[in-house]
Each structure stands twice: as C-alpha cells, then as structure tokens.
Please model this.
Amino acid sequence: MIESWTPQALILTESAKSKATTLKEGDKLLRVYVHGGGCSGFQYGFSIEEKQEDDTCIDNLVLIDSLSYGYVVGSTLD
Model:
C-alpha cells in the first residue's frame, strides 16, 4: 500500500515564530510572497499585511497568497 504524503505549507523554526510574533500589528501578520524576477529568477519578499480571502495562514503568524503558495510549499522559514 502506498501512503500519500502532503508537505507542510511552510515550516517555521522557533526563531521564525518568535520574530513573526514580534512583527504582528493588530490584525496584520507577516506575509511571505514570491514574484517573477526575470533573468535572475524568483524574488522572495516579506511584508506586514492583513489576511486576504485567498491566503493560507501558518500558525496564525505568517500569510501566503495563493500564487506564492506553490513556490514556498515545503520550505523552511528561519
């Protein structure tokens, strides 16, 4: 029997959880996002924003939009 495995959306280290906690501003959380970067590849970024309808929320600390999700799934944020 083959077991299916779904990777965790984004793994947060204890250090990342601690920093994300200090960055919370009311309803605003740390957002991790990815943009196409042309010749230099993808650009990864961070911002502080409110949760949007299509966001995935990790540990009630980090937001990932639906377009960026596929690029960061299984990654570790430290």
Remarks:
- Helices lie at 14-23, 66-72.
- The two ends are 35 Å apart (CA to CA).
- Residues 30 and 62 are 5 Å apart (CA to CA).
